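Feature request disguised as a bug: please show the residue count (439) next to Cysteine desulfurase in the output. Example input:
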Amino acid sequence: MHDLSETPTTGAPRTDTLGDEEALRLRGDFPALHQSVNGHPLVYLDSGATSQKPFVVLDAERRYLETTNAAVHRGAHALAAAATELFEEARARVAAFVGVREDEIVWTSNATEGINLVAYAFSNASAGRGGSAAERFRLGEGDEIVVTEAEHHSNLVPWQELAFRTGATLRFVPVDDEGVITAEAASEVIGERTRVLAFTHVSNVTGAVSPVDEIVRMAHAVGALVVLDACQSAPHLPLDLAALDVDFAVFSGHKMLAPTGIGVLYGRSGLLNAMPPFLTGGSMITTVTMERSEYLPAPQRFEAGTQRVSQAIALADAVRYLQAVGMDRIAAHERALGERLLAGLADIPGVRVLGPLDAARRTGLAAIDVDGVHAHDVGQYLDDRGVAARVGHHCAQPLHRRLGVTASTRASTYLYNTTADVDAFLEGVAGVRSFFGEA
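Example output, currently without the count:
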């Protein structure tokens, strides 16, 4: 059995950060990390794309499927009641993790679906659905949707489509030469016509942390609704969505130790209950006749059909695991690893780090461009040495274009990484240019 009382951190002196010794003990909880790749011990530096899963999460999902599997919110029998209780307990735990009420958490398949849910709900409101309660979500000609140049495609393409459907204008906040979103640039774009502002908390390319407080104040001052992409912050930083004062936020379970297929949409209760639904069908209604239907309050009105029950329960155990370790300690550990990454990369000729070079302004990831060598070749060279890093445009083509590159190689750290992992990446990168005849 692997439960939280048996994690390697139990009984260990609690410090402000993890350090290599504790990170190595934690690694013992992650079965996927104990393997070799191409004859080398796996060095996993791709948690920014998807994290590995500890035994407690794998066991939680398996245990539910073996003992409690039933349709939630639908049956009167004991198994259905037990499944429903676990499902809603998971919602409450995730809500507490990000500082909001449990009726403000909507289960989705991933963050992409959450953003699309909001965009399509606004589209339905713009088509007249939702009555007077949905008036504030209606968009049309003359209205503006604002995004930024740093966005993941999942926080850009849905807003492009919403603009196409409604006639609203899509505008963007440009990033500076380091690829950073600044409050000054935002103030030049956010204005009286801004109805929706969508932006990332932490860039998945540069690791830069956005000035959320300042930007949210600007948006709310003109009556705009704020949608925050928290995919790269929820797994890595202490997160209090209520304190950040955003109207909506999304994050994905698979980036924070949970399975794929589960995501979270946060929305203020009053807004969720005023929004017309996106997906419709069973389990989200109160009354259905042949002519019309009435919908349940949020969050159920946005959870049509059979839900991701085992995944939600596993996400709750992932959150429990992260809380036991301590999000502040995880953030400090990754910041130290990020500092080591930046310092080491600065000493390698022909390597450019994308984003700010001050580790205090970013999380523990680094995307690089190696002079004369394509990112995919860099990634293959690293993989041959057992180092797993992400290559490509990371679903952020506009940001790469702004920074003058088509692709980059990204190393992203997490609680189970050590300085030795960082050093393995640095050693690999240092050999790339000579291997390809570019040194």
